[in-house]
Structures are given as structure tokens and as C-alpha cells.
Amino acid sequence: MRFNVLLAVTFIATSAAGLVIPSNDFVEARDLDFLDDATVVRREPMPEPTRDSRHPEASRQHRQTTGLPPRRSTFHVPAAPSTGRPAHTYTGHDVRKAVFDGHMEHERLKGASNRQKKLSPLKSFGNRLHELPHPGGSSRPLSHMTVHPGSSHHPHGREFPLPNHHNPGQPSPARVITQKTQSGHHTFRGVIAHDQSRTPGTGNGYNDHFQVPAHKPRRSNTGYF
């Protein structure tokens, strides 16, 4: 009889102790929900919505961009043996992707700091006069592009770099240029590039940009590219 009583008391004590432990654990876990995110170090990371949220708008802008080159067209930036800079050749596909990346960057900058905007590869393009035009060439990078600062009809364009295939860590000499139209859409104005034979210095047009002509793909005898 005495053995049965001791056994019953031991069972009740063990059960009570087992009930207390989960209760404390539950309270502690629940209390974590009221702490700052910086305090709770074991929370699951939240998904990053920034890229996904701006992707649809950039896609819409890209679909409505007119004048984009054929994907198989080419843009060739000549080499400069005097400075050791290599030639760069881009396809229409490369150009289209750079235009889209420019739309993406524009959406990202809507919530960026002034420092981020300053460091962004997306720049304003005013089609300014050359410091040192090529002989017989245009006085501006894009002769067919009109810019009236502050005007909604001919606003500043957007300038976004093409990739440097030879040295991805360095900027390339080429840029894609787009401009917003009166209807609110964008139009592709062309590809421009530095004259790679020029070196830094006052009066030699080192920062001038010149249009890179597009070479359209040839048609075969069957009528296909």
C-alpha cells in the first residue's frame, strides 16, 4: 500500500514538472513577437520585394519603348592602337537589354538616396555640343535628337552604359540613349561612344560622345536573316 502511494506521488510530480516546461517555452516564444526585428536574431529572413515590385513597371516601359534596333543588328566601336583600347561590338540584343536595365535602374532610384543617385550608372543626357567635333561630323552626339531643358516635349534623355566585354570591372565607352516622348512613352535615340583614341586633357574632346551607327543584319537568299 505504501509503495503504491509513493508511486502515485512520483507520477503526479513528474507530470506537473512536464507541464511547466512547455508553458514557459510558449511564453518566451510568444514574447519574441513583440520584440524589434533587430533583437530577434532567429527570425526567418523576409523576402526582398524591391526587384519584383519594380520589374513590372520596367517591363511596361520597355514594351512601350519605340525605335529599338533589330536583335541581330550590330554596333561597332573601333579600337584605338595609340591608346591600347580594344574594339567593342554590340548586338541589337545587347542594346535592348541595356535599355531595359536603364528602365530598371530608373525605378530603383525612385526610393534611393541622393548619394545612390549620384553613383548610379543612369545619367541625364543633354546632347551637348562637342568640344572637338570630328572633321565633317555633327556638332552634337546625336544630330537628330532635340533637347529643350525643362520642356515636356523634348526633355533630357537617359544615358545607360553598355557592358565592357573585355574588362567587366571597367566601364565601356558605349552608351544607349533614350528619351521620353510627349505621350509619356520612351523612344530609343541611338548608341553613342567615346573616341577611344583621345586622352584626358583640356581642349582635346576627351569627354565627347559620337554616334555609333547600326549595321542591320543581311537577308539571305531565302528571305530570312
From TrEMBL:
Keywords: Hydrolase, Nuclease, Signal. InterPro entries: Ribonuclease/ribotoxin. Residues 40-90, 126-176, 195-225 are annotated as: Disordered. It comes from the Eukaryota. Residues 40-60 have a biased composition (Basic and acidic residues). This is Uncharacterized protein. Residues 1-18 form the signal peptide. It comes from Pholiota conissans. One of its GO terms (molecular function) is RNA binding.
